[in-house]
Design goal:
Layout (H helix, E strand, L loop, with lengths): L2 E12 L2 E12 L3 E5 L6 H9 L6 E6 L2 E4 L11 H12 L5 H8 L14 H13 L5 E5 L7 H16 L3 E5 L9 E4 L4 E2 L1
Helix pairs in contact: 3-4, 4-5
Length: 193
């Protein structure tokens, strides 16, 4: 298995607080890592660091191409959902994956609905479709279950399982339990299982 993520001796401070110190973690193709811990323990910060939106104070992050789904929808609110998502797949050169991703997460029927009219759950599904259609081998999901109903959770579980089976890897920060095989990193306590 090839490694898609390697954190080497990573230390991260934010707002004058030490969140991570000397963190060493690797993630191979087909693996998933669940980041857990109390609010303020650094889960979202670690996701952003892996995405390249933050820089470590010390250490290195080496990763494959990654796609991020966090609290920023990153879609033009005035466009119909299908066109807004197509913007990202054109940039990534993965337009052929869009219809499949929208169908898999259960939003294909919303392709002509303006993004601004989506419910919170539909918007979360749209963000997850954007990641699934990206073609990136590494998915970074910050609180992926927020706003999803049971159907959305089941569809996300299936998407993650397919991504892992095809050689992708996932890092997810979540307060909730995640279905499937996950390694777990408990932040604020330094426990990797």
């Amino acid at each position: 298995m090839s490694e898609l993520l390697r954190l080497s001796g990573v230390t991260l401070r934010r707002g004058g607080r030490l969140l991570l110190e000397g963190l060493d973690v690797g993630l191979a193709a087909g693996e998933a890592l669940h980041l857990s811990g109390p609010n303020g323990s650094g889960k979202s910060s670690l996701i952003r660091l892996i995405a390249g939106l933050l820089r470590p104070d010390v250490g290195h992050v080496d990763k494959a191409a990654a796609a991020l789904a966090d609290d920023a929808l990153a879609l033009d609110r005035e466009l119909p959902l299908g066109r807004a998502l197509a913007f990202w797949t054109r940039l990534a050169g993965t337009t052929s994956r869009l219809d499949e991703a929208m169908e898999a997460i259960g939003i294909a029927h919303l392709a002509d609905v303006p993004v601004r009219l989506l419910s919170a759950g539909q918007a979360k599904r749209a963000a997850l479709a954007r990641v699934a259609a990206s073609g990136a081998p590494l998915w970074l999901l910050d609180e992926p279950l927020n706003a999803l109903d049971s159907d959305g959770v089941a569809r996300l579980d299936a998407l993650i399982a397919r991504h892992q089976a095809s050689g992708g890897a996932v890092v997810a920060a979540s307060h909730s339990a995640l279905d499937g095989e996950w390694r777990r990193l408990q932040l604020g306590q330094g426990v990797i299982a």
